Amino acid sequence: METAEGIVTLVQEGRFKLVTGTGRVMHFVLAHDAAIEPEDLPPLAARQTRVRVAYSRPDHLVAAIAHTLSTLDQQAVEATG
Amino acid sequence: MKLKRSIGERVAGFVRDWSLPRQLRGEDGSREAAASTMSRGLRPRLEQADTIGTSICPYCAVGCAQLVYAKDGQVIHVEGDPRSPINEGTLCPKGAATLDLMTSPERLTKILYRAPHSDRWEERPLLWAMDRIAFLAKRTRDESFVKTLPDGTPVNHTLALASLGGATLDNEENYLIKKLFGGGLGMVWIENQARV
Amino acid sequence: MPSLGASFGRGAATLPEWDIANADCILVMGSNMAENHPIAFRFALQAKERGATLIHVDPRFTRTSALCDIYAPVRPGSDIAFLGGIIHYILERDLWFKDYVLAYTNISTIIDERFQDADEGDGFFSGWNEESRSYKYDSWQYQGEIVPSSLAEHYVNTTESFSEKTKRMEKGPPPRDPTLQHPHCVYQIMRRHYARYTPEMVERTTGCPRDVFLKIAEELTRNSGRERTGAICYAVGWTHHTTGVQMIRAAAIIQGLLGNVGRPGGGILALRGHSSIQGSTDIPTLYNMLPTYLPQPHAYKPHKTLKDYIDSERTPTGWWHNFPKYAVSLCRAWYGDNGSEANGWGFDWLPRIVGDHSQLPMTLAIRDGVIRGLFLLGQNPAVGGHNAALVQRGLAELDWLVVRDTGETETASFWYKGRPVREGEIRPQDIKTEVFLMPASLAAEKSGTLTNTHRLLQWHDKVVSGPGDSRSETWFIFHLGRRLKRLYATSIDPKDRAIQALTWDYPVEGEEEEPSAEAILKEMNGYSWQERRQIGSFRDLKDDGSTACGAWLYCGVFPEEDKNLARARRADPPAGPGTHLGWGWAWPANRRNMYNRASADPDGRPWSERKRYIAWDAAQRQWTGPDVVDFDPDKPPDYQPDWAKDPEGMEALGGDCPFIMIADGKLSLFTPSGLKDAPLPTHYEPVESPIQNPFYTQQHSPTAKIWQRPDNPLAAPEDPRFPYALTTYRLTEHHAGGTPTRSVPVTAELQPEGFAEISPELAKLYGIANLDWVTVSTPRGEIAVKALVTERVRPFRLDRRTVHEVGLVWHFGWQGYATGEVANILTSIVGDPNTSIHEGKALVCNLQRGRRGEGS
Question: Number of residue pairs across A and C with CB atoms under 8 Å?
């Protein structure tokens, strides 16, 4: 599975945009098998947490499918709860 | 650290937000029963903004004013400026897509270079490209510059360099293009979309 | 836009967008305004709500037609036949606004007796030179006087001496016959010229039913006079013809005859397509002009020295008498202290043009290897350029190519995805071109001004940085200039003096060293050379080197050190006055409705209370109103020049001359100078047409620019191989060459692929069903698209035959998410003689069922 690292900037339900360190913007859709819920995404955007996304890339979508998200910052608070 | 909810949490969340039992209990399906943990937490995106700037729509020439909202140097929202006598807060389908234009996955972030006869793009540093372009512009100019026509009429120009584009650019950008390319280098093939 | 410039004095929209809400009648023609300028179209709908009549005349029934009161179909390219019919109707039924027209236009002016009209010449005016395929303009002049043009090129290229003859304009006004009986006065010439533009001829030529045409003529004329005004809105549906300038001229004549120019809710609104297309015309990245309508020096005109240039371009009378102040101040801004009176302030360093260096000949010069290095700054000619296969082949001839854009354009990827490469004609390893693709910044990622379609400069802020290595063009050009100045620093070759002398000391900001856009705008505005004090008005510019000004028409936008009026954001409250003088800044001098002296009668009184705007205040002895007056503010309406004193400049214009950029101050119904094809609009067929010209033996405009060569073949008139009229158009969801919308997921999803609109009748001939693939072909090539079978496209019933039409969307290419074959593969390299604008709106084509290459 490919991975990308960056900051979540925009969230709309299960869809989000991630900006990588080089300024590239990637579009993601949260996978059904992802272990988090859409409501876990807005806090990531609000706190500017750096995250790593593991994703797959279906042919028929502009967006990639995000399967797992991990926080990279030490001070990051858990998104859940 | 991997972001994760336990199975128990996810099931509990699902049960908590599932609308059907609440509707059976008598909650209105278009009001209370439609709410979820996600929807209760929703706030306008622009609440997060730390910077607001006025901009002008980058598409056609109507000149709709926009408000651009950013947070930590990243654009998060673009909307029509309600103060504008031109658009009064509205935007058309293109103008409304300005945020998506600015954050399109197709946007370039690096210089791509294709060497002569090559079959691929390569990433190159910005300053390298600038030096190389300056070198090529000078070489082509020096090899092609004409001071006078055969009858002695001064022309001070080069016909081997050309520039195309400008109708999407700021006045200040067009001014510098015309000044450097025309007034400095002697280029005469300077054109933009005004004729297209 | 030379048509508006030659008619009214300035080549731009005469009124602000919001003012069309005050119109009583709006004609949209050459534009699908609801689709392509939807936000401006709101004002047309506001006018409709207040009772105005909305009219749409177009080859297709569009979203605009659906919202108008009257829709008239016209065959592509037949607009002058239609508009000429309106002029005929106005003149023959005597419906022109006499008080306005007699005072403010050249209707009574007497033209040289040698003038012969196209009506007598079977499509040719007098002065035709078959060898040079061009006109001499001597016989088009006013009797006994040569009239300098109000366009950027004031010099009139005639056999007679310009300077000697024009001196006479200071001796007295042009000869006029207010009774209009003189056979050579403009009124009589126009009546003869338009005699054959009868409703019957309109129907035979355009396919518009006679009763619909008459209804429109009635509405236009009913909404004229003291109490009522009408507006005309057009876009590239008019400019993209070999007769495009004359189509707009015809609209200008109609608005002149109806007395609609300079009045609230009246005028002509040019709807332009790019965010700064007006700005990039004013601050021209165009070959033939220097900033704000000064002519680029020309090797074959008397432009050898600054003195020659000024002598030949300064007009004796009218505003352009100030020409030397603007020319010298520009040189001062560009060459600073390296210029002096001795070297013409640096004028000698400016490059001279030697012919047409516009995009169409540029395309051929690239293909022929003349041009070796090309900068593409936000333009995508592989999609937008005409004869796109030729364009793509040409790119492979370049030594190097710099593409600056927000995404990978078709032009940048020509060397591995272009049509000649995909079809095996050429391989990437055979292409020598060195290509740089550089990320560029968008509006909110840099500061600067954009000039909108009604001349309004609006500042935009830098809110965020562009992604990664994205930079503005100011950054790119400034840092390229710095490098070139270093490379040339030690040269002693005279050819390098210009680059050495160029002023290039803009302050830079931030880590990226972005040059200050405000500093550049301040230079464009102008400042006093010694004190470096900003200048508030172009009236204060000097021709002695004491002022520097990069763009005289923009003088006033930055009048004081910390006063950037393009940033102004104070709109008027709902109670009015509605001119919004505190929102942005409009050239010239923040005037919103140009030529607004004409909103008052010759005595300076409003034409009516309902249409009150600018009027003479006798007590204060000045012009007053809700707008900045477009006139000497204290020149009384009864002022008349004292011809005994040889008055010059504005002194030679009376108090009843609202069109101050024109040498005689009058709206030019008849244009003696400035236009290369005709003094009066005349119907010619497009270069490629399905029919013979019903008006004259001469088929197409005799002066049309035609580059016929093996790689740009053209169909002959009535060519049986290409029987259908072809027109190209745009969609609201996409922008021009498509880079900023086809690469954006949301807009790509709204309009995912190209298509061709055809009528059910034409579809039936070929057994084509909706969404079937069809192949559209012209002599240049063929493309495959989906068919959209719709009654929005109707066959045109002309007198001898039926002409079917194919409408083709042109935004598409191979990059991005919304893709399709490049429509401009089909179009040709032919152009308007005045502007070199191509003819993309009226061609001929053939149609086949099935997708090309599939053998069906």
Answer: 14
Nearest residue on chain C to A19, judged by CA atoms? C467
Number of neighbours of residue C519 by Cβ within 10 angstroms: 16
Residue C157: pLDDT band (50, 70, 90) is low
- Is the whole-model pTM more than 0.80? yes
B1 touches chain A (CB under 8 A): yes
User: Can you tell me the mean pLDDT for C346-360?
Assistant: 97
**Residue B78 pLDDT:** 97
Q: Is C225 left (phi over 0), alpha (psi -120 to 50) or beta?
A: left
Residue C209 is given by DSSP the state -
Q: Which amino acid is at C783?
A: I
Q: How far apart are CA C136 and CA C158, in angstroms?
A: 6
DSSP string, A24-63: -EEEEEE-TT-SS-GGGHHHHHHHT-EEEEEEE--TT-SS
Q: What is the pLDDT of residues C772-797, one digit of tens each?
A: 999 999 999 999 999 999 999 999 99
Distance CA B169, CA C279 (A): 9
Count Cβ atoms within 10 A of the Cβ of residue C660 and give its class: 0-12 exposed, 13-18 middle, 19 or more buried.
buried
Torsion over CA of C508, C513, C514 and C518, rounded to 10 degrees? -10
Task: Determine contact, residues B174/C375, Cβ cutoff 8 Å.
Answer: no
Q: 449-508 in C: which are within 8 Å (CB) of A?
A: 466-468, 470
Q: Is the pLDDT of residue C159 over 50?
A: no
Instruction: Return the DSSP state at B182.
Output: I
C-alpha angle with apex C654: C651 to C657, nearest 5 degrees?
115
Say how far apart CA C140 and CA B140 lie, in whole Å. 44
Nearest CB partner across the interface for A23, out of C468, C745, C817: C468
Nearest Cβ partner of A24 from C467, C745, C817?
Answer: C467
Share of chain A above pLDDT 70, in %: 90
Q: What is the number of other CB atoms lying within 10 angstroms of the CB of residue B35?
A: 14
For C48, phi then psi, to 5°, come to -60, -40
Q: Is C618 left (phi over 0), alpha (psi -120 to 50) or beta?
A: alpha
| A 15-44 → B contacts, CB under 8 A | 17, 19, 22-27, 35-40, 42
Tokens of C180: 């209009």
Query: Which long-range contacts link C513-516 to residues 24+ away (Cβ below 8 Å)?
Result: C513/C475, C513/C479, C514/C446, C514/C471, C514/C472, C514/C474, C514/C475, C515/B176, C515/C474, C515/C475, C515/C478
Q: What's the burial of B21, exposed, middle or buried (CB within 10 Å: 0-12/13-18/19+)?
A: exposed
pLDDT band at C146 (very low <50, low <70, confident <90, very high): confident
Determine whether B128 is exposed, middle or buried from the number of CB atoms within 10 Å of its CB (0-12, 13-18, 19+).
exposed
Q: What is the per-residue pLDDT for A78?
A: 44
pLDDT recorded at residue A74: 61
pLDDT of C290 > 80? The answer is yes
Instruction: Please report which helix (H) or strand (E) contains residue C849, including its range.
Output: strand C843-849
CB contact under 8 A, C468 and A22: yes
What is the layout of strands, in order, in the sheet containing C456-460?
A: C448-451, C456-460, C585-586
Chain B, window 91-150: residues with a beta carbon less than 8 angstroms from a chain A beta carbon: 99, 103-105, 107, 109-110
C118/C679 Cα distance (integer angstroms)? 10
Alpha-carbon gap, residue C247 to C243, rounded angstroms: 6
Tell me what the pLDDT averaged over chain B comes to: 95
The answer, yes or no, to whether the previous bond of C626 is cis (omega within 30 of 0) is: no
Give partners of B (≥3 CB pairs < 8 A). Answer: A, C
With CA atoms as reference, report the closest residue to C852 among C285, C413, C422. Answer: C422
Residues in Cβ contact with A35 at an 8 Å cutoff, skipping those fewer than 6 apart:
A68, B2, B3, B4, B5, B10
C-alpha to C-alpha distance for C371 and C519, rounded to whole angstroms: 33
Which chain C residue has the Cα nearest residue B59?
Answer: C275
